[in-house]
UniProtKB/TrEMBL annotation:
PROSITE patterns from the UniProt entry: FMN_HYDROXY_ACID_DH_2
Pfam family, one: FMN_dh
Keyword Nuclease annotated: no
Keywords: Flavoprotein, FMN, Oxidoreductase
Record: residues binding glyoxylate: Y137, H273, R276
A Gene Ontology BP annotation from the UniProt entry: fatty acid alpha-oxidation
MF term (GO), any: FMN binding
Cofactor: FMN
Binding site for FMN: S112, Q135, T163, K249, S271, D305, G306, E307, V308, R309
Gene3D superfamilies referenced in this protein's UniProt entry, alphabetically: Aldolase class I
Highest taxon above the source species: Eukaryota
Name of the featured protein: Putative hydroxyacid oxidase 1 isoform X1
Length: 352
């Protein structure tokens, strides 16, 4: 068979969809879940801006894409947002593969707290020259948050990314009917990821993951642990527990940005969780100027994710004040395209 030419991000998405759907339609639904209208508005927000060319400026210095995030140099302002999916697509070591590429490319990756590769395994394999931040939720059981924080400190993660945009489950709330993933990976719904040491207030029963893993409907103690109602007081508590810089992920309004300033965070990732949480949330790019204005006069760095799909999208976000952009789904498409044998997970009920 002729080699397929995969060049643009659209090609990557198309080929990834074909490969993943062939093996596991639940996985494709899970990756692409997100309210369609919210997602298309996120894309459209980029089209509302034009790039004004500068002419007759040939003598300007050679442009550089280097920048810094929280004081660490990165080769380009493109970083990787957290997702629970690299291990589902690639191999039990999927996150480690992304970490390796991040080090080679001189950029930064955010490790997801609900990865199936636990933070001990991920942290102990980190290449020395990449930059890694650890994402966490403010879990219902604070011992789970502390578990992640202590390991992030131990393995040299440079910051904590606290995701604050997931108070309720996305399955019933936001996803348009066609997009509802029937199942979530069992490690999220039942076990709440190997990183959660406590479920229902008790130590989590350890059991092996792998071939036995199922895709399960929304339920289970792990799910409840993640989707809980946390508050600014919980964030204040977290600040007392660690010296790591804190980046809040999921801020979309000036009001929340001002509260984040008061809370003493170091960074804000303007994000709507890829349209996977609140239907009708403003597109991150549209929210960015308000957030930038709200943090004016502080040292808080502002980043953006959500449907960033081209170089000109990146220019626009940076021109509006973002320090760097983050991408999520394109990384998953890349993993799938390069993968000969996709992970095979089974649904929990036959016939669905
Ligand atoms: C499959 C999948 C899993 C995700 N898991 C997480 C997560 O564990 N924590 C989190 O903060 N965001 C999570 N996200 C949201 C992404 O970090 C990101 O905010 C969003 O996908 C927007 O970026 P994109 O448009 O480039 O995909 C997930 C997104 C996807 C697609």
């Amino acid at each position: 068979m002729a080699e397929e030419i995969v060049k643009t991000l659209n090609d990557f998405e198309m080929v990834a969809k074909r490969k993943i759907c062939h093996e596991n339609r639940w996985l494709w639904n899970y990756i692409s879940a997100g309210d369609e209208k919210t997602r298309s508005e996120m894309r459209a927000a980029f089209q509302k801006y034009w790039l004004q060319p500068n002419v007759l400026t040939a003598r300007v210095a050679v442009p550089s894409t280097w920048t810094t995030v929280l004081g660490q140099p990165i080769r380009m302002p493109i970083c990787i947002s957290p997702t629970s999916a690299p291990t589902l697509i690639d191999s039990p070591d999927g996150d480690a593969l992304v970490a390796k590429v991040v080090a080679e490319r001189g950029t930064l990756m955010v490790y997801s707290s609900v990865s199936k590769m636990n933070i001990e395994k991920f942290g102990s394999k980190l290449p020395p020259n990449g930059i890694y931040w650890a994402q966490t939720y403010l879990f219902r059981d604070k011992r789970n948050t502390l578990h992640l924080v202590r390991h992030a400190e131990k393995y040299g993660f440079k910051a904590l990314v606290v995701t604050v945009d997931s108070p309720i489950d996305f399955g019933s709330n936001s996803v348009s009917v066609d997009d509802v993933p029937d199942y979530l990976p069992e490690h999220v719904t039942e076990d709440g990821s190997p990183n959660l040491a406590f479920l229902d207030g008790k130590p989590r029963e350890k059991r092996p993951y792998g071939e036995t893993e199922l895709w399960t409907p929304f339920s289970g103690p792990g799910y409840k642990e993640i989707f809980c109602v946390s508050t600014w007081e919980d964030l204040a508590w977290l600040k007392t527990q660690t010296k790591l810089p804190i980046v809040l992920k999921g801020i979309l309004t000036a009001k929340a940005a001002k509260l984040a300033v008061k809370a003493g965070v170091d960074g804000i990732l303007v994000s709507s969780h890829g349209g996977r949480q609140l239907v009708g949330a403003p597109p991150p790019l549209a929210a960015l100027p308000d957030v930038i204005e709200a943090v004016k006069g502080t040292n808080i760095e502002v980043y953006l994710d959500g449907e960033v799909r081209s170089g000109s999208d990146i220019f626009k976000a940076i021109a509006l004040g973002a320090r760097a952009v983050f991408i999520a789904r394109p990384i998953l498409w890349g993993l799938a395209v390069n993968q000969h044998q996709l992970m095979k997970l089974k649904p929990s009920r036959s016939g669905d």
